[in-house]
């Protein structure tokens, strides 16, 4: 089907078949005219020419007509493609030549000697034949030319041969007539060609528009619209015949990296190769469409009657699709290794629409991504609940951004001498129904949906303008959490700079907390952003240290002045020897590299003592101070009115 469509639109503008068809359509009329003319001619000449010659000529002329009629009937029974075969054009040429020759023979065999009036009559009949041929044969100029020349040249020759003044004049007239007939035929031929070409162009334009509406121009796969139509049909068919089909949502893993690092044209070529590989694996009745980007939908019709059987078949098929990615893809000189995540949903279960199926398979695909990518997941209703929750959060968060129900709390960080040396800015969201929602819950949703860009910007702006109030505590830094997607945003540095200017905050008072994974996702980019910011005076802390890659080697290259040991280790150091060892190791290594360490999650005296014993000198935790609103922590004038005793 794919091939058909491509060929049909790529077809050159060939109007020959149309012209041939036009000539065939006028054949019955031609045959009738020949029959009548030959009859009249025979009758008129009956007394002036040898009768046997007349009869033979008549029979020859009309048997050629019969043959033409037979060809006409055969031609009519053919399909347009068969009619386009060149042989049908050749047949017209040959039969025109034969017919022309037979009528040319009239001037040789049926010429009434000495009968000037009858000679004129004969010339008149032949001229009529020529004129008739112009109207029927001009679509095919070469056939017309042979017909006319074969017909008229013997007559001209005959007149010239007779040698009287009047016959010379007749001969010259016949020549002029021929020239006129042929030039008229040429003009008619050109007009016809233009007309057909115009019509064909229009048809082709229509085909192209249809194609563009239904196919993806890059991969030539059906697009979302065509997929939707097919899905609708398949759902109806499956319900009617009681079988199950499946929709597979396939999304390439880390495709963006390929696009970003090797360029869009390599990315495009990769998509084309992926499309071709999938296409080749499918059965005729299945379909693969491209939704856009690196998202493909595979529609499997009829994969079983029982749910369990259909599930198993869909899984087997998805496994096969995954295997297609074992071999690298050759794009230019690159050998690209890429994997895919697949979400599957079966249909029809209940009343479903194509949109439902796409949405559910999308949900399952996201589960596959969450499970670490390069995975297959079958949609189950529980997944939908999670998605609905996420949608609710997303909607609420958008609302919160505009109606001011986001808040910023600050948690103090202390050094070994009980001095508060920094605060960490922690978001709070007062949900109208759900109460206070922890950032641990909504930051993830914000990350997924991209809302983090606005939420994060709000957080940085709020923390900075709050810091400006703290005139008496110049040394106090504010630690602001920055999530991966927020940091990876190309405009991040510019936006931050804009906020610094707007709030008039001293950048040296700002420390961004980022995680190891934020850096490791795009090392070089991250480093260059960190350097740019550190030139403004900003410092960095590595957050949740110990949970990520924990490869300390890169830290030397970074403007990082603080490691925050994740609270998951700290909370258990008193009871879990493994955690104790991890914390000890981190503290020792950091000391060696001359980077400060803060322990998060200091909830008890016991923990605090243990940390101090290990040489840790900076602390954050409920024992020392909870996250609180700015006014609670610093008072209305921004003065510190509480100092937690240690
Ligand atoms: P985080 O960066 O690890 O922040 C520390 C979390 O530990 C905070 O949770 C804090 O309230 C909590 N915490 C502090 N001391 C203790 C303690 O002694 N015991 C225990 N069990 N927990 C303690 P919170 O405020 O719920 O924030 C959760 C996470 O949300 C943060 O983890 C951070 O990753 C993220 N987050 C918060 N605010 C922002 C923000 O403005 N932007 C971004 N991108 N992320 C934020
Ligand atoms: Ca943090
Ligand atoms: Ca943390």
Can you characterise this structure?
This protein has 646 residues and is α/β, with parallel strands linked by helices. It folds into three domains: 2-210, no CATH class; 224-379, 2-Layer Sandwich (Alpha-Beta Plaits); 405-640, TIM Barrel (Alpha-Beta Barrel), CATH 3.20.20.450. Helix content is 60%, strand content 15%. The protein has 25 helices and 17 strands. The strands form three sheets. Strands 8-9-11-12-13-14-15-16 form an eight-stranded mixed barrel, surrounded by four helices. Strands 2-3-1-6-7 form a five-stranded mixed sheet, sandwiched between helices. A hairpin with a 2-residue loop joins strand 4 (329-331) and strand 5 (334-336). Helix 6 (86-109) packs parallel to helix 8 (141-162) and helix 7 packs antiparallel against helix 8 (141-162). The longest helix has 50 residues, at 165-214. The two termini are 77 Å apart. Residues 638-646 have low confidence and may be disordered. One calcium ion binds next to loops.
Spatial strand order of the main sheet: 8-9-11-12-13-14-15-16
| Ligand set | ligand C2E, calcium ion
Structural class: alpha/beta
The tally of strands reads 17
Shape: elongated
The low-confidence runs, each spanning 5 or more residues with pLDDT under 50, are 638-646
Number of domains: 3
What is the annotated CATH architecture of the largest domain?
Alpha-Beta Barrel
What is the CATH level 1 assignment of the largest domain? Alpha Beta
How would the blueprint of this fold be written?
Layout: H1 2-10, H2 16-25, H3 27-45, H4 51-76, H5 80-83, H6 86-109, H7 116-137, H8 141-162, H9 165-214, H10 224-241, E1 244-252, H11 255-262, H12 264-281, E2 287-292, E3 295-304, H13 307-323, E4 329-331, E5 334-336, E6 340-347, H14 354-370, E7 376-378, H15 381-403, E8 406-415, E9 420-431, E10 435-437, H16 439-449, H17 452-469, E11 477-481, H18 484-488, H19 492-503, E12 510-515, H20 516-521, H21 523-536, E13 539-545, E14 560-565, H22 567-570, H23 577-592, E15 596-599, H24 605-613, E16 618-619, E17 628-629, H25 630-634
Parallel strand pairs: 6-7, 9-11, 11-12, 12-13, 13-14, 14-15, 15-16
Antiparallel strand pairs: 1-3, 1-6, 2-3, 4-5, 8-9, 8-16, 8-17, 9-10
Helix pairs in contact: 3-4, 3-7, 4-6, 6-8, 7-8, 7-9, 8-9, 11-12, 15-16, 17-19
